[in-house]
Amino acid sequence: MTQQQSQRPKLRLASVMQLKPSTEQTYKERHNALWPEMATLLKTHGAHQYSIFLHPETLQLFAYLEVDDAARWQAIADSEVCQRWWCYMSDIMLVNDDLSPKHTSLTDMFYFE
């Protein structure tokens, strides 16, 4: 990687997802034991600084990550590992028909470095 590539600004993405009631601990445990193949998949699709926060009163999850390339990141959804992860998480989250988490992308309004 050249110095110019390493200084290329990353895309900052944020979204909100929803947990089902009484599943907070299960969600945390599953992510603390993230499958090694899922961690590798995230890295190979350009994910950096991935954080997920819980709003304890509403059970909303706020996800934030930086990615190198939007198309490369979106391609993760087609992977077998991601499809298995979605299935694994579908019992504790609100999901779409394809088992992907229901989410709302958030609009970037302010950034301070």
TrEMBL record:
Annotated GO MF terms: L-rhamnose mutarotase activity
EC number, as in UniProt: 5.1.3.32
Entry annotated with the keyword RNA-binding: no
InterPro entries the record matches: Dimeric_a/b-barrel, L-rhamnose_mutarotase, Rham/fucose_mutarotase
This protein's UniProt keywords: Carbohydrate metabolism, Cytoplasm, Isomerase, Rhamnose metabolism
GO cellular component: cytoplasm
Pfam families tied to this protein: rhaM
Signal peptide span: none
EC class name: isomerase
GO biological-process terms attached to the record: rhamnose catabolic process
Keyword Isomerase: yes
UniProt-recorded name of the protein: L-rhamnose mutarotase
